[in-house]
């Protein structure tokens, strides 16, 4: 019985986030964008995320979003990210940030939308538009 439980946890454990994982804040997401840290962005994502990169817009799974972000950051290596505006929804259950991502190949206007969840936030929408 213990062996079966061990196998079950070994196989399915990676599908569920760790309970002791530190909550993510909007500032963490913004730092990840500025540093091109795709793994941190994916870790902050909800199960599905609305992603808009230039003219390509769709709802992606985490894995699909990771691939799209890999392609974007491969073409546009980030040098910095600066917030222009930050706020919260009227019901205070979500936050957003608008900023400028500077890259080696130009700048982008970035819109980040996160929902508050479990003392942290989950990334639900991310947009990159030419600045």
Automatic annotation (TrEMBL):
Residues 1-18 form the signal peptide. Coiled coil: none annotated. The keyword Signal applies. Keywords: Signal. InterPro entries: DUF4783, NTF2-like_dom_sf. Gene3D superfamilies: 3.10.450.50. It holds the Pfam family DUF4783. The keyword Signal applies. This is DUF4783 domain-containing protein. It comes from Neolewinella agarilytica.
């Amino acid at each position: 019985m213990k062996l079966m439980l061990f196998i079950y946890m070994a196989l399915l454990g990676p599908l569920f986030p760790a309970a002791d994982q530190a909550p993510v804040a909007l500032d963490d997401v913004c730092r990840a964008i500025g540093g091109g840290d795709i793994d941190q962005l994916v870790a902050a994502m909800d199960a599905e995320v609305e992603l808009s990169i230039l003219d390509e817009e769709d709802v992606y799974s985490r894995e699909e979003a990771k691939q799209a972000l890999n392609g974007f950051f491969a073409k546009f290596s980030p040098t910095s990210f600066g917030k222009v505006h930050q706020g919260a929804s009227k019901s205070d259950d979500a936050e957003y940030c608008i900023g400028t991502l500077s890259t080696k190949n130009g700048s982008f206007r970035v819109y980040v939308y996160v929902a508050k969840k479990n003392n942290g936030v989950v990334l639900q929408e991310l947009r990159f538009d030419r600045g």
